[in-house]
Recover the amino acids of this structure.
């Protein structure tokens, strides 16, 4: 595995700084959560055998374009991948092993909903090769879970978490904060409870009202009451940093906390701007083919993607060449999300020019960034204003 | 050729919304001048802005053939004039070209301030006036009351006022008959040397400058050579014609008639409105009394939002000035806004119209700075300077005193809002000159400083009276007062485009209002920003815009890189709409919005 901040001196291709991963998107959910703007769909019936064939076909296709690579990570995201039959997961993982070299310490993650039914499949996933699960707990009280449209109770979540811990060495869970009617104090208490449960990784997201979601509609019509004002939300972010750091799980990214060494390797590939193959409806990829970086996108609608793969042997709807300067922008955008920041040499090499030193100095003087040798790190206040920092540096 | 006694020239006088343009439409339609299928509302208002706002800006003309009840055929020439005070000058000169006016009053509303202002122009021009009570189809119509009001307030006999509904067509025939019977025929001598009044002129992309004329004596034919008496410039006449309302070419125009000519004149500035046109040879010797040119009274800076569009703005302004001699411009450099133009306007509506046209017809986004009036600065050395831009205020040690322009404002308002109107006028440093009643409406006359009116007075007046007040003004002269330049500092840097001249006694209040406004208008930045109002070195109001605390995307994984990149592109465009002052981005609308008072 690649360690953060260990930059290879001689490189043939930039992606090697970030690693290589496979993302598998399972687009189905039992119900649509009102805050979710991910590509998820509720289907009455899914013919999994057809889906398996399509995933395998896509892996094979991408395999040919990335021959000889070593996979650092595989991630099943969604939708709700814990609705997949363990056999489906097994078939996909078997195909991935046939297609690429596998890193000795490969991370294979799967997103799971914390219900008892899904917990029943955990052993099957483990047997297939999954070694990390990320559970969508979202809240630790039933009233808020209901508001968030979740189908599980807090008690069920705790039970599912216990089963997960029995099956996997690495278990993380997600919480959403700055929820309706939540006070800073409520969050402080909930987070302490969460840290008592947690192993070594937590994803803590501020509720974001996205356009095109049920919450988005309600918000536009003034019917989403009790959202904490921005200043309170900012306080909650500060509280989160303080409590998690005290508990030994500092933020290694804007919304992700881990004991050092327990970071999600897969997500690090995104943030360290490595290469990743994206298969499944709506999955994005960044792959370097013959020395050029390409951005891939697939059809969003599950059935469209499925029939395209079956009939045309590709689910891809878009493939764009990413020019070096755009790579530099993407690297900066993604990389500054990490507490470990970016490497300025790598940025300059991609961009063909360094970040203007005036802007850089200003951002450092204002306490948003820190320069350590050739590394550029965001401070806590820089992370919470990252969009503004990026505007300063890039716009 | 039309006998003089078969010609009637007239204009229509009315307050905004009292139905002037609709009445003109009906007269045109009733006489069959325009076929029904070609009819469209506000036929004479050709500019988009005129149709949209329901106002008339430029004078327009139409020639109507009318077969009267006496069995004779008449030619009626209507000059449709603007109703708004900004264009009063245009009204008064149009009035000079005709012999009579229709006074249109909304019978559900009554006499308004602009009715008064415009009817006075008609009286000054010795017009015969035919009163018309319009909108009699409305339930609130009260013809007796309004007729009485016309007699009380204006002092003309309204007993025979014609009752009209321009909407339904009722009374239109009676109106046409009244024009023929009650308005005088023009007087003129076909055999005398040519004497024609230059009423208006504008630029047409195909024909060049089009000159609207009223022939007094003699006859003008196509192909003849004419002389402009004020400049002695000579032009060969290419075309002669009339408006119906579209152009129709004819061979000649005789005494009493209104029409147009084209003569290879390159720009509107080459024509002087009010000038006398005669033949090159054997011309008349005595010119008509000219009118003095309209003077701009309100000034503001116009700057392109995108500084790369400066040249486009220069071109656009040149083109607009081709057609509007009352609009002045000179280049201006602002430390804050870069290159732009200091422009002079007849009033605020004129300013808005020009700005709208620049943005719409030439697609240039503009930053408009605070409107200013012309101050007279009396220096200690006894000289006087005009100040068009607060940024140019000279060193105070050299200044003896300042004078500002004053106006006489006439406001008509229903009784129940009178208190609010008086309060507003007092707040704006007004001095009450008169207060009378006409029925349940009060008429107040105030002496007010123009700089208190120029910006948002009319908006405020409309808002405190729920739209029931009407307002008109005339400039009266200059008076000394204790005026100071108030600067605005954003993040400790003065923003010259936000400097204003204010009365010292009102400075704290205005300063406080402006910094509070700016605090809302400027988006939060990554650092806190002090916003101050100052007179000289003394800060009189201060607000602090606190730093933004959170601006981050919570989730950003493999699928979000492209989306985030697009968002940055969008923000790049958004930033173009802001102006940078030091490290602070100020949105373009702030320069005007900061001045609006919600008092």
């Amino acid at each position: 595995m690649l360690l953060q901040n260990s930059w290879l001196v001689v490189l043939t291709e930039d992606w090697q700084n970030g690693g290589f991963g496979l993302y598998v998107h399972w687009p189905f959910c039992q119900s649509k959560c009102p805050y979710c703007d991910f590509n998820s769909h509720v289907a009455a019936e899914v013919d999994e055998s057809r889906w398996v064939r399509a995933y395998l076909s896509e892996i094979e296709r991408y395999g040919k374009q990335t021959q000889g690579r070593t996979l650092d990570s595989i991630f099943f995201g969604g939708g709700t991948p814990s609705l997949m039959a363990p056999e489906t997961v097994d078939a996909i993982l078997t195909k991935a092993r046939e297609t690429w070299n596998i890193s000795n310490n490969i991370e294979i993650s799967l997103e799971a909903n914390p219900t008892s039914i899904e917990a029943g499949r955990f052993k099957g996933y483990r047997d297939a090769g999954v070694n990390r699960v990320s559970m969508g707990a979202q809240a630790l009280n039933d009233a808020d879970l209901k508001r968030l449209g979740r189908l599980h109770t807090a008690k069920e979540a705790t039970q599912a978490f216990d089963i997960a811990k029995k099956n996997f060495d690495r278990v993380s869970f997600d919480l959403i904060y700055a929820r309706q009617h939540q006070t800073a104090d409520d969050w402080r208490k909930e987070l302490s409870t969460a840290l008592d449960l947690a192993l070594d990784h937590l994803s803590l997201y501020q509720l974001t009202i996205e356009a095109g979601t049920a919450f988005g509609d309600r918000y536009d019509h003034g019917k989403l009451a009790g959202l904490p004002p921005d200043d309170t939300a900012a306080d909650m972010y500060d509280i989160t940093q303080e409590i998690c750091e005290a508990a030994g799980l500092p933020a290694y990214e804007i919304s992700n906390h881990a004991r050092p060494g327990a970071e999600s390797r897969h997500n690090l590939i995104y943030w360290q701007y490595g290469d990743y193959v994206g298969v499944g409806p709506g999955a994005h990829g960044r792959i370097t083919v013959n020395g050029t970086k390409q951005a891939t996108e697939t059809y969003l609608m599950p059935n469209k993607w499925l029939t395209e793969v079956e009939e045309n042997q590709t689910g891809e709807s878009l493939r764009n060449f990413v020019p070096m300067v755009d790579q530099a922008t993407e690297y900066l955008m993604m990389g500054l999300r990490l507490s470990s920041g970016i490497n300025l040499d790598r940025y300059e090499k991609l961009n063909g020019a360094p970040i203007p030193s005036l802007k850089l100095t200003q951002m450092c003087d204002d306490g948003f960034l820190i320069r350590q040798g050739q590394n550029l790190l965001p401070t806590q206040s820089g992370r919470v204003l990252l969009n503004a920092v990026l505007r300063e540096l890039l716009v | 050729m039309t006998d003089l006694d078969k010609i009637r020239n007239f204009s229509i006088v009315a307050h905004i919304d009292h139905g002037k343009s609709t009445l003109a439409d009906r007269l045109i339609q009733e006489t069959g001048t325009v076929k029904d299928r070609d009819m469209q509302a506000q036929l004479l208002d050709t500019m988009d802005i005129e149709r949209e706002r329901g106002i008339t800006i430029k004078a327009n003309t139409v020639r109507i053939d009318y077969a009267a009840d006496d069995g004779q055929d008449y030619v009626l020439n209507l000059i449709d004039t603007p109703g708004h005070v900004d264009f009063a000058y245009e009204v008064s000169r149009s009035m000079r070209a005709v012999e009579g006016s229709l006074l249109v009053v909304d019978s559900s509303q009554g006499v308004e301030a602009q009715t008064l202002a415009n009817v006075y122009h008609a009286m000054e021009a010795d017009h015969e006036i035919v009163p018309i009570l319009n909108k009699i189809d409305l339930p609130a119509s009260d013809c007796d009351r309004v007729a009485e009001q016309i007699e009380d307030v204006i002092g003309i006999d309204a007993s025979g006022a014609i009752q009209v509904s321009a909407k339904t067509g009722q009374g239109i025939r009676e109106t046409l008959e009244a024009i023929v019977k009650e308005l005088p025929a023009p007087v003129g001598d076909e055999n005398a040397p040519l004497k024609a009044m230059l009423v208006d002129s504008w630029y047409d992309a195909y024909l060049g400058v089009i000159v609207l004329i009223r022939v007094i004596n003699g006859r003008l034919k196509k192909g003849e050579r004419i002389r402009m008496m004020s400049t002695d410039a000579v032009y060969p006449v290419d075309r002669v014609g009339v408006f119906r309302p579209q152009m129709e070419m004819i061979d000649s125009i005789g005494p009493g008639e209104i029409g147009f000519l084209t003569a290879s004149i390159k720009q509107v500035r080459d024509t002087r409105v009010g000038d006398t046109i005669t033949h090159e040879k054997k011309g008349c010797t005595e010119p008509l009394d000219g009118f003095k040119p309209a003077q701009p009274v309100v000034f503001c800076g116009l700057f392109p939002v995108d500084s790369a569009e400066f040249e486009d703005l220069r071109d656009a302004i040149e083109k607009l000035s081709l057609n509007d001699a009352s609009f002045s411009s000179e280049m201006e450099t602002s430390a804050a806004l870069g290159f732009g133009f200091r422009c002079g306007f007849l009033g605020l509506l004129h300013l808005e119209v020009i700005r709208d046209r620049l943005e719409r017809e030439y697609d240039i986004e503009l930053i408009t700075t605070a409107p200013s009036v012309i101050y007279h600065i009396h220096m200690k050395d006894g000289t006087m300077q005009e100040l068009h831009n607060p940024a140019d205020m000279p060193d105070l040690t050299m200044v003896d005193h300042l004078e500002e322009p004053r106006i006489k404002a006439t406001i008509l308002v229903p009784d129940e809002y009178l208190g609010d109107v008086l309060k507003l006028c007092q707040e704006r440093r007004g001095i009450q000159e008169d207060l009378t009643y006409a029925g349940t409406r009060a008429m107040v006359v105030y002496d007010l400083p123009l700089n208190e009116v120029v910006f948002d007075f009319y908006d405020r007046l409309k808002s405190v009276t729920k739209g029931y007040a009407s307002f008109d003004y005339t400039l009266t002269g200059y008076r000394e007062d204790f005026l100071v330049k108030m600067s605005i500092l954003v993040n400790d840097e003065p923003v010259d485009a936000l400097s204003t001249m204010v009365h010292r006694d009102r400075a704290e209040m205005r300063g406080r209002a402006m910094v509070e406004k700016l605090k809302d208008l400027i988006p939060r930045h990554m650092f806190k920003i002090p916003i101050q109002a100052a007179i000289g070195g003394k800060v009189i109001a201060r607000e602090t815009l606190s730093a933004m605390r959170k601006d981050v995307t919570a989730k950003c994984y493999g699928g979000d890189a492209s989306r985030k990149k697009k968002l940055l592109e969008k923000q790049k465009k958004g930033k173009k709409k802001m102006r940078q002052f030091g490290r602070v981005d100020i949105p373009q609308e702030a320069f005007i919005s900061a001045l609006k008072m919600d008092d």
